[in-house]
């Protein structure tokens, strides 16, 4: 989703260098402006391993990243007098991104995660370099990073290099007010001295999975809200379409002990509880429909599968958050070893997996919306929920908009991680494309929020058209929340886009879930 505004109340700081970061920590720094603090343990570890790197600087034996070139150029031994230039040249040449500017929250997440790896003491940077990076992040200085430049292997090289370039006082940044200016000017205004990189530091600043991991953490946070919102929307659709809640019974779902499925079914039972609309057709003698369509009946199975996939992705993210990604790396016993931990495959796979389940959740949401609009399937509602069908078109084109986004999400569900393209003169001959997987997932998550928002608008209008029958208290609360920022009541056609945008806003900020929970109590 797009950047969200920082909260008005202060957010507690995130301490780096003690226990490893959590997904919530990434969200608080990236999206809500939390400050970062370094633990004393972190600074001690950084100083200790820096001594190891400095001990290798005068060694006659070449050490990658310390006294050699990089990638396919690693065979050249670099003399001492050229090593500062080596580090500057690395960052300048690798800051080669292209295309649109990446969102502020993504860059802040990337910076935090690189700080977290530097703070492990496994990379060999100086404490002064780490402290300057933290100061830049806390000052709200956000380097300008571009859409293209990472293959998700050897780190998110170009994105991280643009951040390292800013630390050197070069390139473009945005200040805390969002204004674009030269990095040197922004650092000076914040009282931060540009860093002159020493041996190994340039490589340590750019060799990680931080961009793709940051976007994974943000997507997990968003999807956790959206899957609960989708449960609320599905329950309201069942209610408005005169469906049955019998299929959501706990004992039925216990027969298939998928944990996410049970949680979604429970959510839907809570939202449908005490609904007069539901009670109006509970008598089997008066209701001739034996069972509902799959998009209603199987909603917990699909949303539950999404939940379990999010949980799997979160486990992968937590493992990566506990990692120290660099090459070479300083081991716990003081060795400096080359490795392949920068390869983004584990992160790339779950980014692609999330795009798949997001597309399927949106697809089912769109199918429920379409049922409301079709007189043959809506159980007595007017065509397209229009006030005067023929004169009015109702929500006809809102469903077109949903369909367009769902179709786009299906394209975005094609995995990036199955692709690879050789780079660095075939030295780097297999890459993860994890950054690309993350970028398309962000677009997919945003589209999912908009698709579910349209289902909520559709369900709200359909439910209100059931009058004099009244909805359950949870639906009433959600309809009131939707109506507080946009119009969802039936009536003659009006300019629809602002109402759909208003519904999207209350979906992404959690207002819809909060409204439902004000009646149901906590939802999963």
Q: Which structural class do the helices and strands define? A: mainly alpha
The amount of helix comes to 40-55%
SSE ordering: EHEHHEHHEEHEEHHHHHHHHEEHHHHHH
CATH first level of the largest domain: which class? Mainly Alpha
CATH topology category name of the largest domain: Fumarase C, Chain A, domain 2
Q: What's the domain count?
A: 2
Main beta sheet: strand number and arrangement? Answer: 3 strands, antiparallel
The name of the CATH superfamily of the largest domain reads: Fumarase/aspartase (Central domain)
Strand order within the widest sheet? 4-6-7
Proper CATH architecture of the largest domain: Up-down Bundle
The total beta strand count reads 9
Task: Name the average pLDDT.
Answer: 93
Rg, rounded, reads 26 Å
Indicate the proportion of strand residues. Answer: under 5%
Protein model, in words:
Helices cover 54% and strands 5% of the residues. With 524 residues, it is mainly α. It has 2 domains: 14-208, Fumarase C, Chain B, domain 1, CATH 1.10.275.10; 216-282 and 289-331 and 338-419 and 431-520, Fumarase/aspartase (Central domain) (Fumarase C, Chain A, domain 2). The chain has a 3-stranded antiparallel β-sheet. It has a two-stranded parallel sheet with strand order 1-2. A hairpin with a 5-residue loop joins strand 6 (172-174) and strand 7. The radius of gyration is 26 Å and the shape is elongated. The two termini are 21 Å apart.
In short:
The protein has 524 residues and is mainly α. The chain has helices spanning 23-32, 40-57, 83-94, 104-118, 127-138, 157-167, 183-189, 201-206, 210-240, 250-254, 259-272, 276-279, 294-297, 299-321, 345-373, 396-412, 434-464, 473-485, 497-508, 511-520; strands at 14-16, 36-38, 98-101, 142-143, 146-148, 172-174, 180-182, 329-330, 336-337. Helix 15 (345-373) runs parallel beside helix 17.
